[in-house]
């Protein structure tokens, strides 16, 4: 079986220069499903949740937004906002970084050994790549967008996304070998979720906005989870628009003054 790659060509590239500023404020994840908010609100005590009136993003009716700011242990300070519209049922949840852009990138490696590991919370930001060596699978950053899920949910979403992107559906005129390749891959996906053997999940996030929950109170006792920080390369900073983050506004002001 060959390596399965989805590249991020479909992902809109923002013009250079504005990206750095945007990268810091950009949501880690955004969703219209209920499960997202439920998963994150578990990290907060009810009295920490603020409620304020807002307008529905779909129908403009008045609705209520719940918000809290918290520090997720072994992750970072985050801002969670969720609203549900009683009038039209539209839901919107957003997870944002609460602090400055982390200085270093972060690589998280989880050895998935038992069925409980499948229900660990996972936050995969848009800038994280996902690797599953057992499947020869690598999804580059920008693929799948930002999601709040579990280990099992992540694998399921990858499967659904590959199926959609490659149009692997039964009954169409897909040639036989491609179809068999996909069926093989899907069988391997199901096999890793059946936990007959341990497997490795790697999230590599240049902006360190991703997270896999430890199974123990102290992360040091969790021998299946390894978090490594690394210096971003110049290319990675360039990709994230961080190399000119400090000069872009000055440049704009300069241009405005000289040409405006
Ligand atoms: Zn509405």
Automatic annotation (TrEMBL):
GO CC annotation: nucleus
Residues in Zinc finger ZPR1-type domain copies: 54-214
Keyword Zinc part of the UniProt annotation: yes
Database matches in InterPro entries: Znf_ZPR1, ZPR1, ZPR1_A/B_dom, ZPR1_jr_dom, ZPR1_Znf1/2
Annotated Pfam families: jr-ZPR1 (PF22794), Zn_ribbon_ZPR1 (PF03367)
Annotated protein name in UniProt: Zinc finger ZPR1-type domain-containing protein
Keywords, ordered alphabetically: Metal-binding, Zinc, Zinc-finger
Gene3D superfamilies for the chain: ZPR1, A/B domain (2.60.120.1040), ZPR1, zinc finger domain (2.20.25.420)
Spans annotated as Disordered: 1-24
Keyword Metal-binding: yes
Position of the signal peptide: none
Protein family membership: Belongs to the ZPR1 family.
GO molecular function: zinc ion binding
PANTHER family given in the database record: ZINC FINGER PROTEIN ZPR1
């Amino acid at each position: 079986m060959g390596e399965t790659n989805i590249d991020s060509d479909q992902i809109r590239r923002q013009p250079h220069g504005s990206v750095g500023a945007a990268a810091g404020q950009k949501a880690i994840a955004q969703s219209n499903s209920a499960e997202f908010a439920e998963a994150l609100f578990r990290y907060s005590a009810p009295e920490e949740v603020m409620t304020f009136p807002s307008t529905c993003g779909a129908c403009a009716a008045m609705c209520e937004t719940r918000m809290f700011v918290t520090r997720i242990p072994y992750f970072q300070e985050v801002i969670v906002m969720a609203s549900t519209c009683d009038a039209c049922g539209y839901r919107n949840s957003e997870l944002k970084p609460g602090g400055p852009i982390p200085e270093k990138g972060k690589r998280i490696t989880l050895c998935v050994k038992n069925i409980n590991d499948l229900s660990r919370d996972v936050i995969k930001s848009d800038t994280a790549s996902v690797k599953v060596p057992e499947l020869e699978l690598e999804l580059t950053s920008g693929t799948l967008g930002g999601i709040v899920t579990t280990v099992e949910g992540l694998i399921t979403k990858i499967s659904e996304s590959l199926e959609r992107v490659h149009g692997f559906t039964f009954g169409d005129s897909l040639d036989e070998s491609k179809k068999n390749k996909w069926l093989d891959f899907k069988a391997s996906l199901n096999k890793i979720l059946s936990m007959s053997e341990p497997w490795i999940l790697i999230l590599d996030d240049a902006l360190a906005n991703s997270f896999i929950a430890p199974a123990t109170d102290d992360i040091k006792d969790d021998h299946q989870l390894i978090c490594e920080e690394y210096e971003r390369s110049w290319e990675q900073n360039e990709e994230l628009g961080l190399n000119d983050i400090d000069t872009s506004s000055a440049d704009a002001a300069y241009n405005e003054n000289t040409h405006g």
